[in-house]
Amino acid sequence: MSEGVAAVADKVLVHSPPETERRGPFGRIMRGIEITEAVLGSLLLAVILVLVLIQVVLRFTPTAGWVWTGELAKFAMVWLAFILSGYLMGRDEHVTLDLIDHFLPERALRVMISVAQVITALICIAAFYEGYHLVSNQVNIRSPAAEIPMAIIYTVPMIGMGLTAVRCVVNAVTWRKP
Amino acid sequence: MTMVLMGIAIAVLLVIRVPVAFAILGPCLWYMWANDQSIGFSLRQVTNGIDSWPLLAVPLFILVGVVANRAGIADRLFDFALAAIGRVRGSLGYVNVGVSLGFSWMSGSALADAAGLGSVEVPAMKRKGYPERFSIGITGASTVIGPIMPPSIPAIVYAAVGSVSIAALFAAAVVPAFLMAAALAVSVFIWARKQRDLERVEFGWRQLARTAGRATLPMVTPVIILGGILGGYFTPTEAAGVGAVYILVLGLGYRSIKVRDLPGIFRDTALTTASIMLILGASSLLGWILAREQVPRLVAEQVLEFTDSKVMFLIMVLLLLLLVGAVIEPTSALVISVPILLPVAVQFGVDPVHFGIIVILNLMLGLLTPPIGGVLYVLSSVTGATVTDVFRGVAPFLIPLLAVLLLVTFLPGIVTWFPGLLGL
User: Fold this and answer.
1) How far apart are the CA of B118 and the nearest CA of chain A, in angstroms?
2) pTM of the predicted model, to two decimals?
3) Nearest residue of B to residue A115, measured between CA atoms
4) Bond before B19 cis per omega within 30 degrees
5) Counts for chain B of helices (H) and strands (E), in that order
6) Complex prediction ipTM
7) What are the CA-CA distances from residue B264 to residues A14, A15, A77, B259 (Å)?
């Protein structure tokens, strides 16, 4: 019975719809980016788990704490969120309210989705621009514990927003009713 | 006026299907740029909203839930509950509620529970002659115990948005979650009285001992998580990490999860986490703007002009959130409503932890109501019934759940007693 549960969980919940066929050089690049994002996101989750466990072990040992573990775990979560933003957008898996989808004829729905994707792309470009300024202004600032340059920390959100914008444009052009 | 325009902009973007995180972020960026805030500050505020130690519990508790669902824990709890009370008339109804209650200690998401438990419980009930509508209804209704009982993802989100202690919220949710289970059990009792020919399961000590043995180790998970947090051994984030490792080891030990499944499990957990975190990040910027514009104070003044009664205020909150919960997904509804409503509630003398339980319970009922009730859609997909049929099944159980909501709202002792006992 448990295999049945896993299969259903896979189907309904776990964000693994059938891979979309993507042909041509652009399609292959997008597929490569998608795989990279998924792998990095999964690895960052594993990093968070390990760092939190190190924190637990340190709590029960008399050694001086590695304060950087907590800080790095938090940065890993920031990176995870922004790295996977494009992946989620490409598969239409961001949290979205499907309030009027069912009431619209397909053509009107297509126009609405395209408009929504263009607006989202503009928002992502604005966020990318914010990220660019942040990276430029934070070159000499380091995080308090791990001493990672903050410019590196903010590079990931900047790139994530850029890749999300690209996905929006692709979606606006290629969207089809599922 | 600016705030009204921003509110309209967010609403329009949500309706035309801009993802929630970006529907919040867009108007916020426009506000920041229009008000000459330095460029770069907005994205820093968004990342600061995610860069939080308590919020690290979210991915780890999601991981616990994903693994518990895949490891067949629900089957073990189901077999045990059936062996224990199978002889009682309507036993599978009680078993259904009991399994949801037991599973809720490991999972904080109603949607995950609906998919996992629905695929086990609904077919089992139908095989024993229970009507499909009743089977789906009680399964759907009981899944909302999951996000109330700790570990609860909405509670962590509320704690982050409202700057409230996660441990206190977790402790506060225990009694209301048990009350929900009790109210649903009473509904099952009332229904089962008229059903004379339901199949029952013979009781046997050997079967009880065997199934209890299979369910024991999974039920240690909540002991580790809640015992660890409330006993002061772990922070909620640390408890989530330890719980995740324990349930992973259990799944691998039971061979219901294989090492090659781990990348998929981690990817799925990471994706769910990312979608929640981006909303939280955007809402952090929205919260900053609302505070800068003193919106909570203005809302409080408006409400106070209308009434100065705490009871009236709570009735207004209940009605508003039932409406919001029906059309907006719970996490998004939480991050939009809490920064405005919580300061007002505090002005009316409502305890922030009590208010948190009211808000979470209220919004979770939205998962069971059209047009966007997530549990309805998941159960429809799992069972093959239409969404309308699923809702018809769930609807009668909204009455006991609403009764619990009213009790929890107007008798704050139900919520504050347990955390008070623990000194939280």
Assistant:
1) 9
2) 0.90
3) B16
4) no
5) 22, 0
6) 0.89
7) 9, 10, 18, 10
